[in-house]
Design a protein that fits this description.
Blueprint (H helix, E strand, L loop, with lengths): L1 H20 L5 H6 L6 H10 L6 E5 L5 H8 L3 E6 L2 H13 L5 E4 L5 H4 L5 E6 L10 H11 E12 L1 H4 L22 E4 L15 E4 L4 H10 L2 E9 L11 E3 L5 E3 L9 E8 L2
Parallel strand pairs: 1-2, 1-4, 2-3, 4-5
Antiparallel strand pairs: 5-11, 6-7, 8-11, 9-10
Length: 274
């Protein structure tokens, strides 16, 4: 398992500067406009509510654009990621924007050892995060350990039903990959990343795990969180099924036809019981 995660880290270290330099992550917009927020956080706003004065941590924060966006909503934010190259870019962006954000390098499973456990009002995890983790139960334990009583988990994630669809098939929505968590990962060998760039990766191997919606909910309940909201969406921030999606005005991708056929993402909120 450590080999899988180490290979993922090398892959993300190589992606980080490409993402930071791309238009997709909008570093220049962040630097030039102190009110600018990422598309991801703008989507979250109606559900996120007022987080003024809250102490928050963004798990698997990558290059920190969503972390910075949350900090601009007057939250005291920390960010955690296992990729040192990603955190280097996150710190550079926060510095350019004049925001003090504590970025910590760590495997997410050790987050409660490197951050002050039981002190956070908000644990935030952005879309495209938990699919890089082999065990959802251990992730839920860490979320609970970080939150203080009454603290909230806010997550939006790619729907596990979408993650089970083979995006390369053109003969329909074909379920070909695991829906439920399995010990063995899905293995990819791809020299591209998801932003516009002419660069090709040399660290091409990566590994992902799917986690069924029931598995995520059950794990959170097991560690003392109470589910307060669960909403499935017919949109996602990237073109998950190339050639079969359209981009809306909010920067979200939806199925071009018959959107009711497949959930693409979900938002889950849960509160730690006192």
């Amino acid at each position: 398992m450590s080999d899988y995660l180490e290979l993922n880290k090398v892959n993300w270290d190589e992606r980080a500067p490409l993402h930071a330099a791309s238009r997709d992550y909008a570093a220049e917009a962040f630097a030039s406009d102190p009110g600018y927020l990422s598309d991801v956080v703008r989507f979250d706003l109606p559900r996120l509510g007022d987080i003024t004065g809250q102490n928050g941590v963004h798990l698997q924060c990558h290059i920190g654009t969503d972390t910075l966006s949350l900090a601009r909503l007057v939250a005291r934010m920390s960010g955690l990621d296992f990729s040192p190259a990603s955190l280097e870019q996150a710190r550079l962006l926060a510095c350019r924007c004049g925001k003090e954000i504590g970025f910590v390098e760590s495997d997410v499973y050790a987050a409660d050892q490197v951050l002050p456990a039981g002190t956070f009002d908000l644990v935030y995890t952005g879309i495209g995060a938990i699919n890089w983790l082999p065990r959802i139960d251990e992730w839920a334990r860490v979320v609970s350990a970080l939150l203080k009583p009454g603290g909230r988990l806010f997550m939006r994630e790619g729907h596990p039903m979408l993650c089970a669809v083979n995006e390369a098939r053109e003969d329909g929505l074909v379920i070909e990959y695991p829906y439920f968590e399995r010990a063995e990962p899905m293995e990819w060998d791809d020299d591209s990343t998801y932003v516009e760039t002419d660069a090709r990766l040399t660290a091409t191997r990566s590994y992902e795990w799917n986690h069924g919606l029931g598995e995520v909910v059950t794990a959170l309940l097991r560690y003392g969180l109470q589910l307060t909201a669960l909403e499935e969406h017919d949109s996602i921030p990237w073109e998950a099924l190339p050639g079969r999606m359209v981009l809306d005005e909010a920067g979200e991708w939806r199925l071009e036809r018959d959107r009711w056929r497949l959930p693409l993402s979900y938002t889950l909120q849960a509160v730690k019981r006192g």
